[in-house]
Each structure stands twice: as structure tokens, then as C-alpha cells.
Fold each of these.
Amino acid sequence: MGFKKTSAQPSPHDNIHLFPKVNTRKQRVSLPKLINKLNRLNFKEESVLFNFKHRKHGHTISMYAHPHPCLDAELECSWMEIEAGNDQRLRAFELTNFIMTDGQNSIQVVPSLLSVDGRQITVKLPDESFEAHSRAIKRHQCQGIKASMVVNSAVYQGDLIDFNAFYFRAALETTAPQTFDWINSNIPINLTLTDNSRVVYVGDCNVIRQTTGQTHREFVLEPSRNQFPRFRAREYRSDRHELLPNLNVAFTHPITQKTMSLKMLDLSGSGFALVEPYEGATLLPGMILEDVGIHLTSRSKLNCTVQVIHRTHLPDGNLVKIGLALLDIDAVEHMELLSLLQQVKNPDTYVSNQVDVDTLWDFFFETGFIYPQKYASLVGNKDKFKETYTKLYNQQPKIARHFIHMEHNCILSHVAMLRLYEKTWCLHHHAALNGKRKSGLIVLDYLCDFINDTHSIESANIHYTTGFYRTTNKFPMKFYGGATEYLNNPKACSIDDFAYFNFEAMPVDDGDETGCWKLATTSKGDLEDLQGCYEKKSGGLLLDAFDLTPENMGINTLSDEYSKSGFKREVHHLSIKKNGELKAVLAVNRTDVGLNFSDLTNALQMYIVDDSGFKPQDFKFILSLVSAKFNMLQFPVMVYPAEFMTDNNIPYEKTYRCNVISSQFWDDYMRYLHKFMKRARIR
């Protein structure tokens, strides 16, 4: 499969074959061919239109009829609307012709009348008829599609008769005291189409023409725009690539309910473009397509939900380019798509590929990422670490992603991300071989591209990205610190410091005798007080990203996702109170050993609300209560804010800085990233 990167502007495409131009001349239709077409109409339960002219007065009438199965030149048809007394009335008319159409081409047949009454008509077909291309754009008949038109706060209900990508025709009616006089053709109206179970289209339209009925009218409506932005405009759009050969995209059209298979023009991580023939176009900006299959091969496909966002008439033929945005796609399937596309940029870079775990461990030791002190902390659980990393790197769980740059089976650099909270992914394990600094930046660059392509898809759950790093580590201090300084907005990118140490349970005194310390279940009011304290001190994103706001209370779908992937995750929120007054909020995190080398995913996080009244022995007493409650003899403790520990003369081992970035401002972050990578000569 080949790729070709494209620009944002439409251009001639060598991989798209033009449709043949339409022949506008009349085509002869033989009797056998006409019979086949009539039987096709019978099979589809569609109708033909008979035209009559009054013998005396000269006026004409038209009547729809269903054709019966036809074996020879004799054709019987039943009227769609049977009216008493039509037997005598029809004798005053002579048959002119009947017309059959597929929405674009029509065949005019001039038969001989054999008999006619109020129930049916029998004719003898001629030896030949004529087919003409009567419409520039094909109309598609509709059944079961309800139309609702809103204009000047009045709602008119009815049915959609037919449509194409450029026009609708709907039959609407009034309900007293409504009147069609309320409709001003100079003012756009809002049209909603439904199929009784879902909305298939909503958009503003202009009234092109209408009939003159008092209570029933037909309206021809034209959508007022060819663009329907789903998301706000982005400066850093996903890279688009043309694929050779073209992929097929198949789906059921939400209005016609017919299966469509169209060629893909280009593809990115956030959407793709299709081509339709101009004369038969059916996809309208704003339309949502569900269960869309991107067929990689005859047996392999990716399923997604998309929305039509723009339509462009290509200058190099009778084609229409349809741009679609990804609304939803399975996380693993989207990862497969992005993995394919990122190989285009660099064939030595991989997204969540299967990795030989021994080679990965060699890499971590060789880069010094696992240094002696860190190894000493994990060696007691090395078998559990091995088991966890085998699942993480070979089973493609939805909760984890990794990015690897490798050559000839040698890993040069690595970075990973783990879904740590409901809408937050944690970046960790960033390392590169000595002398491969640029390789380390390459995987970081691709990780950011991955987030740029993914964060707008709700099922990806990327509202925030976070990372913990030591304040003694020069690169993250420069990289993440530079981003915080560049964005200069704590609601876009924030930094907060945690004090870190390992706690070992031991017998302690009962704490301060002047007050009563207790652990209680965290309430909504406790989180509101914590939020007020944090906003005053930091004003950043930490509590939103870590599910510690009142609106996130009780939400815990992520634990089920961990369980489905074969992992464990528990988060318990407790409040520390002294004499009934809130002092701190605890988040007790319990996961599989090894998800993070520093075991930050298994840490107890303590968020101080009121630092008055704390003594070192009180602190140890509270942690001992937690140890006993959860049967934990040893566990990491992270305390925010870090200065609480020094202010209260409580020893700790080191400081971890937590960086949080909001995807709402990801475009601003990408601008910073491009400048950073340009200075590093990566982009």
C-alpha cells in the first residue's frame, strides 16, 4: 500500500478515475429491455406515471400505477389511488403516454390502450421507446423519513419525498391555527429529518419553490451551506495522506437505507475524504453516518461513526469531494489507524506494536532509566513487573499506549502513556539510548501527534494529559516548564509539586491528645472545600484531571475498563478530620504492581486543605490508620502542597512535579511543541 501526503487544498488526484460524462441524447429502448425495466419496478414495488388528455376540453391528468409482472407486450397496472366513479370519468380521456424514471433518467412510453377502469389499466407496449437524461442531478426516492420544518417559531410536519445532495422535496401540512402564509421565502428555515428512531439530518435551508395548497404543500429546499464545521478551527490539523490503491468505505445511507461503497480520496487520524459522482451525490454537510466500515482488505476493516463536514466540486471532472470527521471509533481500531499513518512519517517508529519484552528490559537498563536505587525498590516484585509488562506490550490493552523508535530490532527510544483517571492519560517512561537524543524527541513528537489526532474523539477520553517528573531532571524541567511559561495560563497548562516518601507501617501513639483525628468518607462538601483551597493556591488543572471535583464524585467507569484488560484499579477517597474540621483529602490508589516504575499509580495522595494543628506524630498516626484500613504495610505517599512537609518539619525523600495539559488548548501546546522541535531540528 502506498501513501502520498496531500496539502489542505483540493488538487488533481492521479488515483481517482473520473466518471464517464453523461450522454444527454435520447437513447432507444427495445421492447425486451423495457419489459425488464418494468419487472424491475415491480420487484422494487415502485410506480409509473400515466398521462391522460381530455377528449373535449383538452386538459390533462396524471395518475400513478403499480405495474404487474410483465411477460410480453401486454402490461397490466393497478392504480395507486382507487376512486369510486372513475370508470365513467376515464372514458372521457385518451391515453397520452406513461413515464418511468430512476430519479435521473426517464423513459417515455407511448402504448396502445386495451382497457381502463377505476381499478386498473391494460395497455399494449410499443416495439421501442426512448430514454432521456432529464435531470442534471439524480433524485433519490424516500420512504419513512419524517420532515420537520421550523420557520418563524412555527413547526410544520410532513414527509420527505425525494432528495439529492443539493435539494430536498418535502410534503408538509398545517395544523390550525397555522398557515403557510407565515413562511417568508426570503428567510432561511431549519429542516430536521428523522427515521422514527434517530435524527439523520439537521440544517438550515432556503425555500426554492413551493406549491399553492392551503393545508398541504410541497416544498423544494436547498441547504444553505456546503460546510458544517464539527469542531472549532484548528491551526495544527492532522496530516492527510493519499493511499494507493484507494480504500473502500462502505455504509448504509441514513435516508435511502441503501448500502453505499465509495472510494477514499485521502485519510488522516481525525477524518477522511470520499468521492461521489456529481450527478448522483447523496451526502450532505451535517449528515451523520453510523457503522461506517473502512475496508483495509476484503476481510479487515475499521468501524467508525463520522459526520459530513464539507462538500467540494472537484475541478478535474464530474466528481464531488466529501470531507468527513471522525466522531467515534473503537480505541484499539483508532490506534491501528494511527499506527498505519505514523509509519508514513517514519517507518522505524511504532505505536503500541508487539515488543519482545526482554529487549525492552535491556533497553530500560542500558539507558539508565532503571538506576540502582530504582531497581532496589522493584527487585522484590520483579516477577510481577515482568508479568505486567508482558500484558502491557503484547496484548494492546485500551488503557495503555507506547511509542517506540527502533532500527533492526534495536530500541532507540521509548515513551508510554497510561489512562490514569477517567479523562486523563499519564505520560511516563520516556527514555533514549546514549547519543540518541533526537530519537527521544522523535517519539515524544509522535506521541503529541497521536494526541492531536485523538483528543477530539470522546471515546478516547483524552481531556487532560499529565506527567510526573523529578525537579532534578533537566529535560522535563526545560520541556514542560517551557510549555507552562509559553502558554502562561494555569487552565491550559499547570504545574504543582508533591512531596514523596515511602511509608512503612509501625506502632504509633494515638496522636495529638488535644484533638480527635478520624478518617471519614469524602463528601461533596469536602471536595468543594478542597477545590476552594486549591483555586486560591494554584488555580491549575490538578483536581479536574485527577477526578477530585464535586461533579466527578462517584464516577468510576475506568476501573471496569482496567478489569476488562486484565488489570486491577481501585481509588478510595477519604477525608482527614480533626474535631470534625476538614484537614485533608486522601486518594488511595491501588493498581497492579509495575504499571509505573516509581509505583506512582499505587501511591497514597494527600491533599492538604488546612495545615493548622498537624504535628509529625499526627501525620504518622493518620498514615497508620490508612495502612490498617487497607492492609498495606508499605506504600508511597505523595503530599500536596510539598511545602506542607517542610513547614511542619516532616521529612520526605524527594519532590515530584506534576504537569497537566488541557486538550482544550492543545492547539496552543502544538504551537509551542513545533517551536521546540524546530530548535532541536526535529521538524
Amino acid sequence: MEATVTAPRQKIITKIEANPELVSRKNSNRPLNVAAYCRVSTDAEDQINSYRAQVSYYTEHISQNPKWRFVDVYADEGITGTMVKKRENFLRMIKDCEKGKIDMILTKSVSRFARNIVDSISYIRKLKAMGIGIYFEEQNIDSLKEDSETYIGIYSVMAQSESENISANVSWGIRKRMQNGTYACRFNMLGYRKDKEDTEPRIISEEAQIVRNIFKMYDEGYSLDQLKAYLEDNGVKTTTGKTVWSKENIKRILTNEKYVGDVIYQKTFRTDCISKHTKINRGERTKYLVSNNHPAIVDRDLFNAVQAELARRSSKRRTSDKTLTSLGKYSGKYALSELLICAECGSPYKRKTWTKGDEKRIYWRCLSRIEHGTKYCPHSKGFEENKLHAAICRALKNAVNEHDEALTLIKANLAYAVTGDETNLDLGAIEKRIKEATKEMENYMISYRNTGGDKTRYLECIQNVADEIKTLREQQETAKAKLDKSDEVNFEIKRLCDWLDSHDTSFTEYDDMVIRRVVECIKAYKDGTIKVITKFGTETTETV
């Protein structure tokens, strides 16, 4: 079959002339819609005067040109040039450009337009794509010209570098004031106010009492949820005027060192002057602690106790298999949720309600027994709440009655509990032996007086006991001196003893707050008994 030969196609080219109206708005006969942008970065008086002068200048300059139609002067006062998102009038100008209201923008310099090179170039390109030019008077640059971007880029780098240098100088000055303790920090917080004319913050007495209540209640066992309810029920407002509190706000109060009269500088820092991203300082930068900087609202001992309690609660381990997180949840409602432990399997006890018809009983049961039945804890006992409370009160009454007689032993046990140093137990043992030896001497003295025969043996015994007591007294003084030097031990002892002196410790009625303060833990045994271990070192067993 013979192939067909196709003749080559002839291309036809037709010239379509450009529309002069669209080539350049500047060449059109209609007046250009011209706007101006100006900015000052601080609220200083000379800067404000410069700001007003710029607005006046551009208003008059644009209005006097017959080929221009005045649109507006977009001005940001006291705003940084490194972040566009904070410049409301700049963003309003860009939106007006997108709506076709503006043909050209006048500005003093590249640094006034933006100090961030990324923002500067991106917005210039965006406006250029819409046919909108920017004229930088100081550099005599028109952004619509072909080679303008190179020059604008150079000046933008210089402007950003200048901002970074200024930021570094300001940061250096701030650090110096922090080192000297003269840096003025803000006190916009519950309990304090500080105006510009004030040299130090003023305490607002009514608010300060609320702050003290928050610290005291947390130390006594209240949870963050309970503190939230307390604040909202009493109509206490946050620093922003809200009536609803968050647990995060309450925790910030409990951890704020300003309430104890101290200030920690540089708890946060900015990563750079362009993004202005703020990070919590976890050791990347130097911190400065200024103690006794201003009048305190909260006692330092109470503040330290709250910090220890915060750490204790946040480190609670998961106790239930149904808990999803690795840490357990603190219960501020019932003290026994924290203190009552099964001696058989080590699980905590949980409060349960048993209902049958109109009958309702509350009891406590081993959590492992509740979740797994008798598989892991076959022998643990459940206790009716009222009987359990009564047994705890009896145990504590016995423990406190022994308090005055065994104060030295109590201190020694507390010292060991706080420090873990077994040598602190020596003082209690010495004191106990002195009492025993003194009793022996009294018995020997009675025998010496009553015997009608040879008294030499009794005299020797009396002498030996007297020598022992003398040696024990010397050891006692050494142990006491060592114990007295421990600030941590004496702080805990003082807190507990002061609390015992100021509260009703007759234990006629069960009180969760009292139990939290006095009891270290309670162990529940399979024979129906409990062992109450107090924070002052005593152990008492009671039958529920």
C-alpha cells in the first residue's frame, strides 16, 4: 500500500496589542490612589512626636499632588517592626490593597516598612503581583522596578541586623539590672498592686487574706478542685476579672515565689527578637533569685510546706489498673484514700457505698480486692466507715496522750523520717535508757535503806548505775546538739508540735483535716485490726 505524504503546516501568528490601561496604572490618565504607611516602635515622647509628624507630612504631601488621590495614612504607634501580626494598621492596609483601594504606597524607609527580612520581601512581592508599588523615600527605591528587590533585600538585612543589635543591647541592660536586683517586674496578681510611681508593690489586704487561705487550705489537704470551688463560691475574681477559675491559675498562685517576698528573674526568655517566641527557662539561661525583695503575704514555712506537698502529690504512683496515666490522682475529699493501706497486698483502700432497698452503708475495701476479687487479695477485710473512724480516733487519742512523755523519742523518730539518718534514733534510745537507769537507781536506793544486812552490794550497784547515767547524759548532749543543727528536722518538728498545740487533739470526732496532719499511714490487717502510724513516730493497734 502506498504511503500518503502530508504537506507541512504553516503557522499563523497574530499580534494582539496590550491594553495601555492595564500595562501600568501610573500611565493612566486617572489619578493614582496613594496611601502612606508610617510606624514608630516605642511610646517615648520623641518617638510619638515623630509619629505625629509623619502622619501630618504624608497627609499633606499626598493631598497636594494633583495626580494622586489621598486614600489614608496607615500608622502603627509604639509597635515593633519585627512582627507583622501585631501591626493592625499594616494588615488593614494590605486588605485594602487586596480590595483594589490602593495603587501605590509611600513610606519613609525599608526599616519603617518592616525589620523582618522575610516579612519585608514576602509582602513586597505580594503587592507587586497586584501591580501595587511601594516607594521608599529614604532609599529612593520603587518596588515595581526590575532591580528594586535586590536593593530592598540589602536594606532589609541591615534593618533586621539593627533590630538584633538593639535587642542584644536591651537584653544586656536587663540582665545587669537583674544581677543588681533593680529590674522592675510586674505585680499584676491577686494580693498585690504596683503602679508606676510605686517603689515596691502594695499589699491589698482583702485579697492577701484569700491568698493565705489558698495556701493554708492546700497544706491542710484540699485539692485544686476544692480550691476552685472555694474561690468561685466566694465570688473571688481572677486578675483578668473572670469569675471562673482554672486549676492552672490556682497552681500558679501556689508556686509563685513573689507571695513569700522573693523574685526569680528570667523564669522565661525569648528565643530571638524576630519570632519573639517565649520559652520556659529550664536551665538554658541564668536565673537570678532576689530574696526579701518586697513585703511577703505568705509565711515562708507555709510556702515551703506547700511546695513539698505539690511535689508529693504530683509524684503519686498509679494504684488502680483502670488508671490510664502512669501517675495516680490525689484525692482531696477523703484523707483515708491517701493513708489507708492493705497490709496483705499493699493496695490502697477505696470508699464504697453499699445499697440494698432503703438501707445504705458506707464501707472501705482493698482496691485490689474490688478490681480482681479474691484472686490477688483473698484475706483482706472491709470496714464500715463509722466503725473505722472510731477505731482511728481511739488509736490517735492513745498516741497523743503519750506525746508529752515521749517528746524526745518523737523528735528522734521525726528526724529519722526526714533525713533517713539512723544515728538520729540514738537520742531516743539514750533517753529511754536514762529513764530505765534512773528507775533502777531508785530501786537500789530503796533496797539500800530497807536492808538490815550488808549494804556494800547496793552501794556498788548505785555507783555503777550513776556512772552509766553520767555517760548517757554526755551522749545525750552530743546527740541533741547534732539534732538541733538540722534545720530540716527542726522545721518539721516545729510545724507538727505547733499544730498539735493549736488544734483539738481529743479525737472525740473524726476529722479528715486532722488525720492528714497527724497520720503517716494506716495499715489494715486480715484479723480486723488496724495499725495507726503517726508522724511523730508512734504506732498504735486497734480493733475495728
Amino acid sequence: MLTKEELEHAKTVLGRKPTETELGMLDVLWSEHCSYKSSKRWFYLFKTEGDKVALGIGEGAGLVDIGDGYLAAVAMESHNHPSQIDPYNGAATGVGGIIRDVISQGCKAVGLMNCLRFGHPSKPHNAYLLENVVRGISEYGNSVGIPVVGGELEFDDSYDDNCLVNVICVGWVKPEEVVRSSAKTPGHHLVLFGSTTGRDGIAGVSFASETFSDEEEDNRGAVQVGDPLSKKIVIDTLQELIEEKLLEGLQDFGGGGMTSAAGELAKAGGTGVEIDLDKVPLREVDMKPSEIVISESQERMLAIVAPENLDRVKLLLEKNGTPYGIIGKVTDDGHYTAKWYGEEKARLPISLLVEGFPVPERIEGKIAAQPESMSWFKEPEDYKKNLLELLGSVNLCDRSWVYSQYDQHVQSNTVVDLGENGGVLEFPNNRKLAFTSDCNSFWCLLDPQQGTANSACESLRNLVSMGATPIFIADCLNFGNPERPESYGQFVEAVRGLGRFSNDFDIPIVGGNVSLYNEAEVDGETKRINPTPQIMIAGIFEKGFTPIRRNLLSPWANIFLVGETLPELNGSEYQRIATGQVKGVPPRYRPEIEKQSMNVIQEAHQKGLIRSCNNVGRGGIGIGLMKMALRSKYGFKLNLDYIPGTANSLAQRLYSETSGRYLAEVTESNQAEFLKIIEKHGSSVCELGLTVKEPVADFGIFSLSMDEARKVFSNGLKQYME
């Protein structure tokens, strides 16, 4: 709801009391979800420009030139609150909304990703949420015919009452087919097409900009209901309209509904709009004007059409059986005017509606310093048992229960199966792009700035390990209530961390989303999620390059560790399993070390020296090696006595999560040239051991069979979901 200050500001600017319809319009567009009133003041810290950036932050999708006459598109969004209330529809409409963001720029949507956070699945309600979120994503994506090519899943008690559902859509478009989200010419028509308008999703953005209360059922009407078959018709119809160049502007109906769609078109074009609400196709006949103008019903688009093209547009819409309405015109008066059978229900200056809110004061709380000590650490009594426990833990185990429900190959452009370090799609210009997303919320809880930067580094290493060169970033920043200094301090520090990373590695941020108020009042206490800055990075492969997988490919090859290992176990999965908590200073962000090892792996890939490769991330070397072997028919035999760095015990060497490290399988014939590249870039390296024919993981002082490990790994999540 509007604050008292915001209401008084609106009265002062208008010189009168806002009408009921105007109050609803201001409420949704001045909500945190639409206005970014607490967050956008910090976006200057991001690197957003680049030679290849064709369209950056501010429109439905970011566009980046990938050569040969094609642009890659990306959009990233959250649907957190709706998914906590109604997981199936919340997740499905999140997918539907992110697809609309991409196609609203004239793009063809070719891939989806999802990044999910829940409380531990041993709790029945969390398992219920996970099951239905995955079902919503799967059934929507599969029905609309877009493959799911990647994602991430993390569990922690902080998400018990506020799960996170972050969705990503990627696509492509030729530069001459890009449609902008602006209404520039007075007299052009506003054409709404797609599904009809109902009460579902009313005030959804306001709901998403509030802390959860115990009355969850009261908010169920704010959750939209998706219809993937209608979306497929919209996609096909839109493709025809774009091919015939019939649209002067286009915007999807997302958060804020018609208020946002028409208002943002007018703002971008420096114009106004006049809308006849009685001409909007409705599915509920008794809807009030104040409901119609803010409804967030799904599968709807708003097009700007020149008078000379209107008849052709109508013909195509009717041919495809797409509901539509000619609901208004672009004006030159700079106002948003809404009428109901000729009666004026709203008349607001676009400048007031879209960004005229009074900027709220926010206090950046100081982040509590964490102890450097690792006094909690002790060597495991049984290394084999300890490794199996880590392999079966919900944050490290097999995710195939989730991704086996997704159609990965529906458009026949998916290059690698799910479960690799990133998803890979082939684009029409014969270029392959990889996409991956990461966030370690435990690191971010302990140190939001370094944790965010290191989460971005993990995304980067996933791409580099496959042989791709990172080219752009999208993000979804999930935090608690910005009105609380501690929560706002976490957000600001995380933005600083992502800004540092984007500038240090010269990778532009071209799109994203901010989701705040992710907390709940439970039994009179505030429960806030871990800071969760979800970071997606895309990378491009050289023409003709085959992406490198992480499964071991042959026996008697050398296994190298690139990068030094420090005793950085605070915030690690080992600490969480051993003590039941995370505390202390997490792994530090070291951009220069990260670049050294990145350069080594990139040059070695260019020369074809590496057979398989894996990023060292959660669970350290131990889990990284196991995941390479579990996906293959081979095993390994190691000597961990001489790993570069200061880790001085076996458990520290196995499970440290020090950033900037890679595991590489290199045949004996390529070893000398590989070591020359290491020396050239000044990176640390050691030979850990060899791959072997037997399916055994031999760590020197202990070993285990792959069959035993595979059983534990595959059952970690599945045991809670069957």
C-alpha cells in the first residue's frame, strides 16, 4: 500500500485527492517490485556498457551481439512470493512472464533456466513446495516448447517460509527485427492481444513488495494463473506480426498489468496514452475499472500499431484465434488517461506515475564482522563416511530428480544434457553459447560483498571449464526488507561485490531483477532469507569448438589441480555438515588469482590439451573429483601430500572452498605443453594423481567404490521426494 508520505506527495502534485483507480495505479507502479525505489540508486556500481551490448538494463531483455547478424537475448526475474503461496501457478507464471520479457523485444525464446531455494526437504511442506514448483516449471516450459537447459538448487532453513523461484529465458533476434518498448507517435493505436483479463494477479507487485504475514491465504488472489497453450498461440502470432514489421512498439503485461505496460511505453516514447477500459476483453464481466487497469492476468501483450497497419494486425489476430481489443491511442499530452464508457476514471502525469515517487530514505546497516578463527575445525574420524555424507547432502547430491522432469531438447538446439557445468545452446549463426548461474548464500550471509563476488567467480569458472569465454551477466538480487538497516546493508554490500566483479573481469551486466521483502513474520519473530544474489553468466565458444564435459574420459591420464588451496572452510559445506551451522570469514575474493587460473584453462582449451575439466566449488576438491568420476566409468588414484597452498591437513585439502581452482584431465602426451602454459601465466599447479580403469575413488589413506558413492549421491534428494 502507498505510504502516508507517498499519498501526500501524490495529492500535492495533482492538486487533488487521487481517485480509486489512480490510487491502485500509483500503488502498483510505486511498489518496490516495479519502481526499484530502494535499489536502483546503486546500479551505477555495475559495468553495463560494452562493445557488444546492443540493449542493456531498462527494457524487457538485454541484447548482446554474438556476431554474424545475430543478437543473444536474456531476461531474469523472480516469482518468490507467488510460489510460496501457490507453488504450481507461482512457478508456472514466473516462467510465462520471463518468456514474455524476451519475446517482447521481438526475440525467439530458445532456452530456460531456473534457480530455486527451499527449506530442507525433510520438512513435508518444503518437499510439497519443491514438488509443485518443479511441476509448474516443467509443465509450462514443456507445453510451450522451450527447453530447460540449466539451473541451480540450494536448501537452507532460512527459506522455510519464503522460497525463491528465479527464472531465466534466453533467445535470439536479428538486429533489424528488434522491437523496442516505446510509444513514440501520437495517434498510433494500442492493441491488447493474448488472453482475456480477469482478477487473478491483482496487486501482485504490491504483494511481492511486502513482508509475508501469517495470513497467506489472503494473498492467494494476487497469484497469476498461467495458460501455456495460450502463450504458444501468442508466440506464434507475435512471430508473424514481427516478420511483417507491423509493430511500432511492444510491451508485455507483467508486474503492474496495464498500468505498467502502457505507462512504460509512454515514458520511453515521451508521449501519453488514453485507454478505454471498457474495450478490454474480460473473462469476468463484473470487473471494476480499478481492477482492470492493475490486473496481472497472464499471456497478454500490448502493441503499438500505426493506423495503416491496423487492419492487417486485426486480420492476423483473428486468423490465429487470438483475443484482442483496440483499447486506446498514443497521445501527446504526457498523461495516462483511463476511461470507462467515456467517463474519466484516471488522469495521471506519466512522469508522476512511472518514476515520480518520493525517494525513500534507507539506512545501510553495518555488517557484523566474522571471526577469522577456525577453532571449530577437526579432522573427521572416518574419512570415507564423511565424504559419503557430503555426497549425499542436499546441497551437493544428484539433482536429476528435478531436471529429469524438464524437456531439454524440444527445439533440437540443446548441445549438452543437464547436469554439466552449464547449459549449451546452438544459435542460428552456428555459434554455441553456454549459460550457468550460481549463488552461495552461505558465503553471502557471512560476507555479502566477497560472497557475491565469489559466487560470480564460480559462475565464471563453470563457463571457463567448458571452454567458453564469458560475455555478459544477468542477475536476480533476492534480499529481505530494505526498511531494516541490517537487510539493506546486506543488499548494498552484495551490489558492491557484483559491481567489483563485473568491472574486474570486464563483463557487462545487461539485465536483471531485484526482489526485496523476502522475509516472514513467524510466531512474532522476523525470519529473513539468506542474502541471495543469483548471478547468471553467458559465455561463447569459438566456432567449431566442442564444449568440454566434466566426466573423466580415459584411464591413465593425469589429473591436475590448477590454483592454490588455502584452509578456507568457514562457510563451507564441510563446516555446515560437521557443525550444523556456518560462521567465520568465508573464502576471499582474489580477482588476480582468479584471472591467472582462468587464463591457463582458456589457453589450454584453445590448444586442445584438456580432456575433461571441472570447477572447484562447493565441497572442494573432494566433491569436484567425485562428480567427474560419477559421470564416467572410470576412477582415480591420488596423492594429496603436495598440494600448493597453506592447507595442512587432508580434510582441509579435500574440502576447502578456496576460489580460483580447476581440475583438469590431461593425457601424458599433452602434459609438457600444459605445464608450459601454467608457467607462462604464473599459476600454481600440482598433479593430484591418475585416472584408472577401475571404478574406485582412491584418495590415498582411504578409498570407496563408485557404486557405493553413486547410490548415496543419487538418493540424497530423491529420498525426500518419493
Amino acid sequence: MAAKHRVSRYSEIAGVLIKHGFRYLVEQLGLKSIIFTGDDAVTPDKYHRYSYPQRVRMVFEDLGPTFVKLGQLLSTRPDLVPREYVEEFSRLQDDVEEFSEPDIRNQFKREMGKQPEELFSYFNFVPLASASIGQVHEAVLPGGEKVVVKVQRPHLTQLIEGDIRILKNFSGILQNRTVIGKVCDVYEIIDVFERQIHKELDYLTEAVNTEAFYREFCNDKNVVVPRLFSDYTSRKMITMEYVEGIRVEEFEEHNYPVEDRQRYARNMLLAIFRPLFEKGIFHGDPHPGNILFQDNYRIVMIDFGIVGRFDQVNRRRVAELLVSLSERDVPAVMNIIVETGVTTRKIHQQHFFEDVAEIVEKANGVTSGGFELGQLINGMITISINHGIKMPDSLFILGKTVMISENMARRICPELDIAEVVKPLALEYLKELLRPEFYTTGMYKQISNLSEAVVTLPKDICRAVRNLANNDTRITFYHRNLNWLYDMLDVSSSRISFGLILAAMIVSSAVIMHTGKGPLLWGYPALGTLGFIFSGILGVLVLIAMLRSGRLR
């Protein structure tokens, strides 16, 4: 049955590709022979009026959840796909049908071992919202608490795993034999997507993220994070406290005074960026559906399926970057870019300086609301790509978060200066790094490690000196990924040995021919003649083998 399903999926993919004018790709992938359905008689006018990125986006939409999520990921990764595809993929939306009550019941039975009526005093089978991964339902716990239950789509994991296997099966062809491989690293795209989608499919990961943000804001009167109910949570089902609030579209309809709008926008930015500097975590998808507004300037944060994380080193760099950008410190921004990423080729320093200076000056003071932080972050990412500096994945999530949150803040209060909110957080974090921490667990651990080093260091030095005096100093080298060198040396030594034997045969045959003695063949000494013939055949075979291997150099 599984094999039949895979063949059906191959056929579906082939049909969709042909429908949008990618027949040549179907032929290169070898899918032409298994097409069962699909519009095989598409006229050129039907798809030629769309650009190549638009057609790829439509293919992703037609192929369902796996490819929709892939496109949404690529919309935040200009390092993996060209900019025109990033812009087109950003239009992908979760436009999916609701799954039925029997599917919900089956999912409950598999995950919780019970039906919804056995777990909740009330459960509404009509969803509040539906997306490509799951849908949200309203329910009431036996204790009377009103909750929301997010249920994952049935068989979604199997579908996505199957699609990833298909992508991996065709990755070599896509990389080496199509135009896709000329503009993208197909292998890296699949690896990044597989890692990200596995996190989103595991609701226990979202539960851990929700708990982390709840602990961060549980005593904050300005930020509300729903409480998690772990007894009603599993890998494919998550239950949280029901919290109410209005979306940014509804907020804009209210005629709030400027002061109120500023407080709402400020509290929203603090809710998003404060955890970044305090705990190294931040909401990775704060779109208008995940940020709500309550009375008394309270901000509601929900849906922590995508969360970015930074260690202390990268937190410091982000803080320094925000300060340097706001102060137009171009050399500092250049240094931070180089330190944060991995340089893959030699950087042209003058061009690098000009590009950084241009993006800093362009983004500063463009609007009445201060500098465009999102434009700066994404400009920095673009510069790093152009100059061969590979940035960590979390920076792209941060770039997306900054863009979305900044856009929402300006919708709420166009007059707000983003720098006045974010820069103090960065400065305070940098100040904290300079303050010594006494009587803390970290301090005790550092003192313990230092005392141990002080005790053992003299012994280690004496042992090293003694070994050196006894001529007993040994240095051990470990190598990694040098099998190719062993293979090359083996082939080279074999060819050298073969060449020496061949040369010896030719020389000995020539000596025999010079004597003119022994049995004759065609008027020449037979042994010398056969030696020349055999040497010639072997020499031609070796030459052919070297030409076929492409290593005749």
C-alpha cells in the first residue's frame, strides 16, 4: 500500500509540474512514464503569462502542505534562493480545507487513547482556525478552564516524510542536470527544511517553547502568554489556556490617542525583543495572527512553533550590531558581519565598506519613525551573501521577526521611534556583560574550575618537562576526511610501479632485438618482438584508463 501511495504521489507531482509548464523537468526526473492524471495538454499561453518564480510558487501551492511550508521557509532565506523567489514565496498562504470530525476523533484516539468527550467537558469540532500543519479547537476542561486545543492533521507526518524522501531521491538530478542547481544548493535546502519541519511537527517542542515564554512573562502585567496543560498535550496535540484579544486589523479601527498607540507598540516590541537579550530566545513568527491586544496596554503572544535561539556570543553581537547601526558606525558593522558569519572567499574590503556604508546611510532617518531596523538587518544579510559570508540560520529567523514586528509597530503607531525601544535593551545587555557576578552559581563554577587548574598546572608542567628531558615527547596527529588522499596515493603508486615495469620490458626487448639471436619472428628475435607488442598493448590500455578517469594531467 505504501509503494502504491508513493507511485501515486510521483504521478501527482508530475501532473502538477506539467500543468504549470515544467514538462522538461518531468522528463529529466524520469516521471513521464508514471503519469496517471494531470493536465497533459496545457497550452503555452496558460503559463507563459506568468514569470518563472510565479509558476514555481503555484506548483508549491498545488502540491500541498510540504511544499507550502518549504516555500514559506525559503521566503526567509535569501542565502538559499534568488531574491525574486524569496519575494514570490512570501505570498504563500496556508489555504487548506478543514479536516473532519472522524479525523479529529481518530487523532485523539491515537494520541491520548480517549475521545474528546472523555477528556473535556466541552469540545467544539468546528475549528477556530485551520492551517497546513493543524487546526485549533475551543474546549473546556473538567475543572472549568477554557482552553484551545491544536490538533495536527492526520497522516501529515507520513506525507511530509514521503515528500522529503522524494526530494532527496531527485536531489542529484535537480542539482547537476537542471537550471535549479545553477542558482541554488539543492542539498542544503533539503537539509535546512528537514530540520525545521521536524521541529514544527513535534508539538512537544512547541510546548517547551511555550513554557519558556510563560516563565519569562508570568509576572509581567503587560504581556500575556497562555498557560500550557501538559496532561492534555502530546507530539501531535497541544492544549493551552484560552486568551482573548484583538488582531492588529481590529486595533487599527479603534480611534486610540497617540499616547495609547505608543504604549501598545512599545509593549509589543519589548515583548518580542526583551527575551532575546535576557534568555537568548525570541518569537520566530510574530505575524498579526500570533500577536493580540488587550485592554490596559497588554500584549498577547501565542503560537511558539518557531522560536529563534542565540548563545551569549551571538547575543552580544546582535546587541553590538543594533547599537552600531543606530550610531552609523560602519567599521563596527563590518567587523560584526565578519565575526558572525563564516567567510567563504576573499573579501574586497573597499567594496565591502561601500556596500555597508550605503545600506546604513540609506536606512537611517528615512522615515519620521527613526531608522528602519528591518531594512538594515536584511540589508546586512544581503551584503553578507554578496561578499561570500555565510550567516547562521538563527539570524535569518531574527531578520524575519524584526521585519514583521517593525511593520506591526508602525501600523499601530507610525510616530514611534523603533531605536528608542530596542537600543536601550541592547545597551543594558552590554552593560550587564561588564558587571561582575558575585555569589552566583556561575561564579562558583568558575572559581572551582580555576582552583582545579591552579592545583593541577604545576604537576602537568613537571610531567611535560620530565618527558622532554627523557626524550619521551610524542605528538599525535589525527586526520579527518583524508581518505581521498590515501586513494590518490594508492592509485599514483600503482601507476608508477606499472610504468617502471613497462619501461623495463621495453628496455629488455630492445636489448634482445639488438643481439639478433634466438628464434626469429618476421625476421626479428621472437622474444624481443613479443615484448614490444605486449608492452604496446599495455601502454594503450593504461592511456585509455587515464583518459576515461579524466585524470590525464
